[in-house]
Design a protein that fits this description.
mainly beta; Jelly Rolls; eight-stranded mixed sheet; 2 helices; 16 strands
Amino acid sequence: MKRRWIFTLAAVFAFAACAGETEETEDAEPAASAAEETAPAMEADPDIAPEGEATALPAGYAVRLDQPSASTDDYRVTAEDGGLHVRTGPAGILYEEATAVESGDYSVSATFTEVGAPPNHREAFGLFIGGSDLEGEAQRYTYFLVRADGRYLIKKRDGGEMSDVSDGWVDSEAVNGAAEGGDVTNTLAIEVRGDQAHFSVNGTEVATHPVAELDAYGIAGVRINHNLDVRVEGFQLSN
């Protein structure tokens, strides 16, 4: 089976070190302590609703936002140029139910371009696999993200709890960065082969982890943190 998506995902402004148990906090700044991840920090870096009117999601797509109080009206997805254009305030995941993989070997990949990549706004984006109960309280998935500062992260989500798979944010020469701002492009891939999951950036394997330690089977899609402008092209799921 092969499925392809082409996305452009967009949003605006600000660097996040948001508070509480949100994915924005978990994926944001590795140096932030629990004491720093407070409500004032969250207020200092709010989600910014995109300009213009809200639109319905294209047929077949679903969004799960990190914060229950956030509105999908602020996560704008429209079909454009053969793909999707998303402008988002809140962070969340975007997926099609038809991308579920229940067993066996498979791979998922996509190319992400962060537009502008402002140096004072290092938020993350990438792939997720193993999604289940994505509309419920017991949502689970494994996610593989990069940032424009040349780092990657692998984590798991289980309901409201997140846990590291990688050793936090990891510096890697495989990840293209944008020290002075400007567009930056990275191709991410996850390949489940036998009892191992292989994580690659731009054709270079950066990590391997046992499938037994991950949520590897279920829905696959993309994860984009808040206030970002990202194009996602060539989403492909093969098994």
